[in-house]
Amino acid sequence: MDRETRNHLIWLCLLWVVFSAIGEWLVQMAIDHWPLIASKEGAVTGEAIFFLLRATAPIFTLVVLILLYSAIRFRVPQDDERPAEAQFATGHLFIAGWVGLSVVLNVLFIIYPGIYGLEALWGGAQAAAAADPLDIMVTAKQWEWDFAYPGGKVTTVNELVVPVGRPIRFMLKTEDVMHSFWVPAWGIKKAVIPGETRVLVVTPTKVVSTSADPTVRVQCAQICGVGHALMRGDLRVVSAADYQSWLDGKTKAAAPAMGGMKGMNMGGGSSGSMSNGMTMPSGAATMPGVDKSGGGTNGMGGMTMPGASDGAMKPGAGMQNGTTTQPGAGAMPGMDMPGSGMGGAGGQGTTGGTSGGMTMQPGTGTMPMPGASDGTSGN
Amino acid sequence: MSEHSGMIGEAAGPGWLGHAAPMLRAALWGAIGFLAADWAVAAALGSRLGAEWPVVTGFFAGSTGWVLGGGALEACVRPWFGPAPAWDEGIGAGRFLRFHSDHKIIGIQYLVSATVTFLLAGLAAMLMRLELMTPKLDVFADAQQYNEAFGVHGSLMLFAVSVVAIVGGFGNYFVPVMVGADDMTYPRLNGLSWWFLVPGVLAILLSPLVGGFQTGWTGYAPLAAQDAVGQDLYYLGIFALGLSSLFTAINVIATTLYMRAPGLSMGRLPMFVWAMLVTSVLNLIWVPVIGTGMIFALADRILGTHFFDAQGLPLLWQDLFWLFGHPEVYIIMLPAWGLWLEIIPVFSRKRLFGYGWAVAGMLGVMFLSSYVWTHHMFTTVADSRLVPFMTTTELISIPTGFMYIAALGTLWKGRIRLRTPMLYVLMSVFNFLIGGFTGVFLSDVPADFQLHNTYFVVAHFHYTIIGGMVFAWLAGLYYWFPKYTGRLYSEGWGKLAAWLVFLGFNCSFLGMFVAGFDGMNRRVAEYMPYLGGINAWISVWSFVLGLAFGIAILNLLISAATGKRAGDNPWGGKTLEWQTSSPPPHGNFARPPVVTGDFYSYGPERGVTTP
Q: In A, which residues are within 8 Å of B418 by CB distance?
């Protein structure tokens, strides 16, 4: 190696050390100011991100330095056409070093944080199954999140309340299209696939709420139509005692609601007959701007809206799980009527707020819903 | 040479109407075909003109009218029935406005259409960024319009710009010249390819007229089944664009394998031609897969089949889509690497470093890219698929690294001239490094569980596609500008625009990584107020980026009309396209070239090719 090359390399090494240190410092700054991580699983995925940031910073620095060093140090006036003095076409040390390093890094990254992190997540899920997890049924639909709590009495819409420190097993289903269950602060998401039940285990580690930190929210992370952006729910992580008293309160409120209409805040008056103690806001509230005419319809008869076919004809939606609080047969006829009403009034583009709400009732899931098919084939 | 008629036609000769007559006829036949079929089917079924069957039938009739009207009737169909092809290929500017079999004309057609599509789809992006300036919906009338905008933006950028700008534009123009051939192997098939591109672009661009599609460019089922008729146009448009890519792929492979000049062994093939060959193999294998997917999905909508709804397999769509969709990422990036390694030696005045490694890297990427698609589905597939696809995905960084070996090794101790093309290439190398390293995060399953479908992903793939491919495309546009126009561009404006593009791009898209970490999900018109600051920042810089792209392209247009004459070889390049006139004559070379050495020698033994 000649002296000139050696000088270049010494400079490069010095710069690399300096800029790598700066890079690591910047990474540390970013990690110190990281958004909230509030679950065991999020700690795993967050640690994976942190490790990759730390590990790739010096490598990134090295490549950028070679690039910049060459562009600055070996630059000549742009009209200078003379060939370079050095005309080597290979350099065994450089190539061997590069290939060797990239193989080593790949193997490392696959093992840690890749497989290691997956083992942590899967191991955590297994341990949770043995450790009295809280099972919450999640039904995603356009465009809201329904949560059914253990005990078969309490259902909430766009509002999730869970205790801190206890593994929670979310059973994820969809009544229509694909959605994705994501709480940014929990650091993990899972797609919800039509016709399937997916399980996601999360152990919250911090008492937080959406109002305190907006990354603590249930957010749909898979484009699912016009209401996708606002398909989100408030999340409160509370102490075990607070959770129990909240659940008890809800359970109590659910019982009298069977007879009258107390304890509900449903928006649509026509939905009174299916009151079941759910704190369900009207469909309209979660469906911003659904006013496109012609959209969502198909010109040809026989076409299906997934809301009707996938949700209604497939088992696995709504009542299968046994924990939703259905009021029983008495209310079912009542649900049928607004459904068929929707077929006439709001079939094209689901314009009506209350009719939109109707299609979203749990329990209509297993009913054929004649009204819906009228609505889609009529135009 | 009298071939300098290049871009802007001389007024002499047939006149404007005469020049444009074939394209006007194509537009007329296309419009008549569409309207007639649309009306006839609507009348027969008693449905609206904008209903499903009328529009689908109209698309087929309209595309056929367009392709035949452009000249395919006389040039391609007529010979089937006996008579010889009878088609006037025109002169001057008129050559670009008709069915033409010269690969250089077709290359320009692709470049122009890709640029126009790029600007239109970019305009959609500007509107989206304007919407995202504030957390609330205020630019678009409703979320549906926003969804249609990102669907059109993504579909056009991916299927009509990224995969065709370099392959269709430079691939058509330069592969035959660089291998010393007089044209592609199948010139008329080549001529057809561009004419299939236009209906594809129009179908996607105009889909909002019939309700648009809200699924984005990925068209996920079963949401797609809920969409308006615009979704059918998405399927048909991408199918047509796929046909266009297939025709080009067949030609590039055949030309590279069978029409090389004497002495041009595969081991001497220019890097750009290698990139085109490898890309075309990927196209040939994987475009049919997505074409199949599009047909199945269309059948789901218009024939009532159940491939992809809950009665079928919703995930099957994702598999079919990404089976093509991930190789497509490399269909986009391989040509960019080819441009890097073509341009870097010329502007470093130094031999290409590690030629064999670079070729091996391209082949390695070609092979591995077919085994990584599930990484788009880490949050949707069964756990059993996670580790295998994490492994293959991470491994693909190894052959990708070979491009960096070649690029950095060539730069080292070169004599680097920072002209505009070289500037863009170095920027592309830098940007793609960020795209690549953030890809490591997404290939890592635990990290992906958090980052999937966030703005981190949006930032990542824009770093590979804009940062990698579009920068390289601009490098190519400037590098070969003297060759395809015969003129020199303005260096000052070129560099200014390059720095502005670089600044606007990095400032806006680095912000998207932050938004992703902060919990911003993609494909939303509205977001929670705490994300307002970072989004306003991204938007402002994206407008700078849009403006900078405008300057870069305007510079090319003005220079094409007013630039100084370039001469045959302004950069001192060694590859064959620099050994003929600018632009090359019909047939490319006055005498068939003979290759006697490699194209990347700048030492004392320079001048090894004898045209």
A: 71, 75, 78
Beta bridge mates, A181: A190, A220
Q: Examine the domain organization and report whether A109 and A253 are in the same domain.
A: no
Residue A134 three-state SS: strand
Q: What is the C-alpha separation between B230 and B194, in angstroms, rounded?
A: 23
Contact between A295 and B227 using a beta-carbon 8 Å cutoff: yes
Q: Chain A within 8 Å of B74 (Cβ-Cβ)?
A: no
Residue A262 has pLDDT above 50, yes or no: no
**Residue A303, SS3 per DSSP:** coil
B230-258 and B52-67 helices, crossing angle to 10°: 30
Which of A299-313, B119-133, B349-363 comes out lowest in average pLDDT?
Answer: A299-313
Whether residue B179 is predicted with pLDDT greater than 80 in this model: the reply is: yes
Domain count, chain A: 2
Whether residue A179 is found in the same domain as residue A65: no
> What letter represents residue A280's amino acid?
M
Cβ burial, residue B42 (10 Å; 0-12/13-18/19+): buried
Contacts of B215 in chain A (CB under 8 A): 223
CB contact at 8 A, A353 and A324: no
The dihedrals phi and psi of B134, each to the nearest 5 degrees, come to: -125, 155
Name every residue whose Cβ is closer than 8 Å to that of residue A296 and which is 6 or more positions away in sequence.
A305, A348, A349, A350, B226, B227, B228
Which pLDDT belongs to residue A151?
A: 86
In this structure, the answer to whether residues B70 and B128 fall within a common structural domain is no
Task: Say if residue A111 is in the same domain as residue A147.
Answer: no
Range of the domain at A102: 3-74+90-129
Same domain, A53 and A160: no
Please indicate if any CB of chain A lies within 8 Å of the CB of B390.
yes
> Mean pLDDT throughout A264-291?
35
Do A119 and A218 reside in the same domain of the chain?
Answer: no
Q: Is residue B181 located within the same domain as residue B138?
A: yes
How many other CB atoms sit within 10 Å of the CB of residue B589?
18
Which residues in chain B are closer than 8 Å to A303, comparing Cβ atoms? Answer: 52, 225, 301, 304
pLDDT of res. B604: 57
Residues A118 and A179 in one domain: no
Closest approach of B521 to chain A, Cα-based (Å) = 6
CB distance B602–A98 less than 8 Å? Answer: no
The proportion of chain B whose per-residue pLDDT surpasses 70, expressed as a percent, equals 96
Alpha helices in B179-219 (DSSP H): 187-206
Task: Give the residue from chain A lying closest to B531, CA to CA.
Answer: A214
Instruction: Kindly tell me if the per-residue pLDDT of A376 is higher than 70.
Output: no
ipTM, 2 dp: 0.93
Q: What is the C-alpha separation between B483 and B7, in angstroms, rounded?
A: 12
Lowest mean pLDDT among A371-375, B6-10, B510-514: A371-375
Per mean pLDDT, which range of B16-20, B56-60, B141-145, B423-427 is the poorest?
B16-20
Q: Which residues in chain B are contacts of A190 at CB distance < 8 A?
A: 379
Same domain, B338 and B482: yes
Nearest to A118 among B429, B440, B445 (CB): B445
Is B315 at the interface with chain A, CB within 8 A?
Answer: yes
Q: How confident is the model at residue A285 (pLDDT cuts 50, 70, 90)?
A: very low
Q: Do B314 and A178 touch (CB under 8 A)?
A: yes
Are residues A233 and A148 located together in one domain of the fold?
A: yes
Give chain B's domain count.
Answer: 2
> What SS3 string covers B99-131?
CCCCHHHHHHHHHHHHHHHHHHHHHHHHHHHHH
Place of tokens 């199948």: B186
Q: Are residues B392 and B432 in the same domain?
A: yes
Q: Which of residues 191-230 of B touch A (CB under 8 A)?
A: 210-212, 214-216, 220, 222-223, 225-229
